[in-house]
Amino acid sequence: MDLLVIGYGNAGRGDDGLGPAFAERLAIANLKDCYIDIDYQLTVEHALQVADAQTVLFADALIGGDTPFRFAPVQADSAADIASHSLLPEAVLALAEMLYGKTPEAFVLGIQGESFGEVAEGLSDLAHANLDLAEEFILEWLVSNKKNVSLASRA
How far apart are CA 72 and CA 57, in angstroms? Predict the structure, then answer.
């Protein structure tokens, strides 16, 4: 697959659901050659999916940022904790490299929220606004960086 998007977080904890909400939006966009995965957290099982992708985008909520979202490249880190049931993107990439010999280009998208921790469905107004900005940015980034993902099917 050309692009793998993994949106992760707990949608039952308010703005912690920003990662899944972002992935759902890209799923609705029906991008060509793009596989969407939505999960509660990153696990060792994600390493196989990551190994099969040319580019990986990890999307999660961001706490305490000073911008609507952060977007940055991420690389495998063999020192990252892989003994836990919940992993960081660096650890998933390290597992893909160690187990499958693959190191795709990878990025992390952190979307700023403000309401975390309490059991609550739905996103805050700030999270919705930041989600809109992050989605617009990523769709433009896909086109400008000539990722093999077609936006032609967007309504």
Answer: 10
Per-domain residue ranges of the chain: 3-144
* pLDDT at res. 154: 41
Contact (CB, 8 A) for 63 and 113: yes
Residue type, 114: E
- Asked if residues 69 and 15 have their Cβ atoms less than 8 Å apart, the reply is no
Chain centroid to CA 74: how far?
Answer: 11
Give the pair of three-digit tokens for residue 130: 């930041």
- For 111, phi then psi, to 5°, come to -105, 125
Report the alpha-carbon distance of residue 109 to residue 29 in Å, rounded.
18
Compute the distance between CA of residue 127 and CA of residue 131 in angstroms, rounded to an integer.
Answer: 6
Rg (Cα) of the chain, in Å, rounded?
15
Which CATH code for domain 3-144?
3.40.50.1450
pTM of the full structure: 0.89
* Helix boundaries (H) for 35-88: 46-51
Spatial distance between the Cα atoms of 111 and 25, rounded to a whole number of angstroms: 14
Taking the chain (155 residues) in consecutive chunks of 10 residues, what is each chunk's mean pLDDT? 91 92 92 91 93 96 91 84 73 94 95 86 93 95 71 44
